[in-house]
Amino acid sequence: MMIHALVLSSLLLTEAGAGGDVLFEETFDGELQSAWKWIRPDADEWRLRDNELQVRSQFGRIWGGNDAKNVLVIRPAKTDNVEARVRVAHAPKEKWEQAGLLWYVDDDNFVKVISEQIDEKMYAVICREQGGRGQVFGKVEAPSADMQLGLVVQGNRVTGKWRLKETDPWSDAGSCQFDAPGDRYFGLFTQNGPQDQLRWVRFDSFVIIDLLGEKE
Description:
- The protein is built from one helix and 15 strands.
- The strands form two sheets. Strands 1, 3, 4, 6, 11, 12, 13 and 15 form an eight-stranded antiparallel beta sheet that branches. It has a seven-stranded antiparallel beta sheet with strand order 2-5-14-7-8-9-10, with no helix packed on it.
- With 216 residues, it is mostly beta strands.
- The termini are far apart.
């Protein structure tokens, strides 16, 4: 029964992301589009190279703390029946070192789906912080730190998903309700990197999709 449920969940995620109109696409090809906004920017710790956004794996935190630098957010044209995707590549060494995708109101109210290293194993994880209180809703061991991540927003239900490459079917990372009031943004971030070492997280192929849009 559990295997059947996981297969069904994967099929549903594949179908949900199969069509729809592209609302926004970022190729990181020389400069960021003007719709983006930095939270606690540190210009020396990010760069655009090779059609990637490269951000230093920061020592600060957004989960359990409000000091993560270079959190990059964008407000989508619509905030219901919408999905964001991004590819994340990094080489985390610290416990809980992570990078990923946010559905964000402020530092105490967000949902995140992440590629995270815990005790030398990699995981795809979905968590929510609401009113400053955190909760984990899904944690799946993954064979690589490099993965494509997605967040699907349907009303107040947010679902995380992941896959290693674009030809793979999506795997379900978990879902949760998110009821925090306020303007909502998609975002990119890093957390729990080392203080005394320089490691870069690479983001590329960021896209926001209207799930109710017409297929091309």
